[in-house]
Design goal:
This protein is of the alpha/beta class. The chain contains 12 helices and 8 strands. Bound molecules: zinc ion.
Length: 302
């Protein structure tokens, strides 16, 4: 098993986008800086989508401008179409994140594309990123189940991953957008996709809607995923996935991996402090368990 796993901080995008309370540009930048201070080296800083559909992301360009260059930190912009890719490239982001969707009904509701169309659009976004000298990755949403279509055929996800891998992404992610996956399913799908796209890395993205998120992370790591998305505090949802709860919390994943001997490069105390700060900004209790319980107890001084 791998002794080092990269965590991608998705709190500034996936964490915030489903929150009804609009967060200021300044607080979004502060959240990104908290993540960097805690050791995050790849951060999804915004999504470039229609602000009428996702009002929380209306200031994407302003966030990137206020953040500025981040030495040694890759700033990712999530995009669903060519228009979003143009915006993300224009404001100077380092990496584009495209989204292909494993089911037709969810694809049509989320981004107005069938599953096959979403693969084609992702391919055009990858080409745009490459043409602009940026890296790009693709996430396969609803890989473990669809809110409208139910079961998703794993063979379809593997075929999508194999097709997308030919288009030049730096990695392919499997996303449990609505938090229905369980560890046995995660093990099987991560293993199959890994075999289909090697040596390209597999990233995973879990929501803890049914309390299986953290177990799914471990199953994915054991099955060979090398990158894990997480969000400080465990905020998050999906505006187009009914009932979707938060992402797995960065501090919970960092604890799980560190205590298991897997290096992440993250500072747990700083993550917990960032989670408490974010709870204050959002005026709510974070879903994160570590923010409540703290890390492993330190021995009392004699
Ligand atoms: Zn998500």
């Amino acid at each position: 098993m791998q002794r080092r796993i990269e965590l991608v901080e998705v709190g500034p995008r996936d964490g915030l986008q489903n929150e009804a309370k609009l967060v200021s540009t300044e607080d979004k930048v502060a959240l990104i800086r908290h993540a960097i201070a805690a050791g995050a080296r790849r951060i999804e800083v915004a999504s470039f989508v229609n602000p009428r559909r996702v009002p929380q992301m209306a200031d994407a360009e302003a966030v990137v401008a206020a953040l500025g260059e981040t030495q040694g930190v890759t700033r990712i912009g999530l995009v669903l179409n060519e228009r979003g890719a143009e915006r993300a490239i224009a404001c100077g982001l380092d990496q584009l994140g495209a989204v292909a969707i494993a089911s037709d009904p969810f694809g049509i509701r989320n981004q107005g594309q069938t599953s096959a169309e979403s693969v084609e659009v992702a391919g055009r976004i990858l080409a745009m990123a490459q043409g602009a000298g940026r890296s790009a990755q693709v996430t396969i949403a609803a890989s473990f189940g669809c809110p409208f279509g139910g079961e998703v055929d794993p063979a379809h996800v593997v075929a999508m991953a194999a097709r997308l891998a030919e288009l030049g992404p730096c990695e392919i992610a499997l996303a449990d957008t609505i938090g229905v996956g369980v560890p046995a399913q995660v093990s099987a799908l991560v293993s199959a996709v890994r075999a289909a796209i090697a040596p390209l890395p597999v990233r995973v993205h879990f929501h803890n809607t049914r309390n299986t998120g953290i177990a799914n992370v471990w199953a994915a790591v054991e099955a060979g995923a090398s990158v894990v998305d997480a969000s400080i505090g465990g905020l998050g949802g999906c505006p187009f996935a009914p009932g979707a709860a938060g992402n797995v919390a960065t501090e919970d994943v960092a604890y799980l991996l560190a205590r298991s001997g897997v290096e992440t490069g993250l500072d747990l105390d700083r993550l917990i402090a960032a989670s408490h700060w974010l709870g204050g900004v959002m005026d709510k209790t974070m879903p994160s368990m570590l923010a409540k319980a703290g890390g492993f107890p330190k021995a009392e001084q004699e």
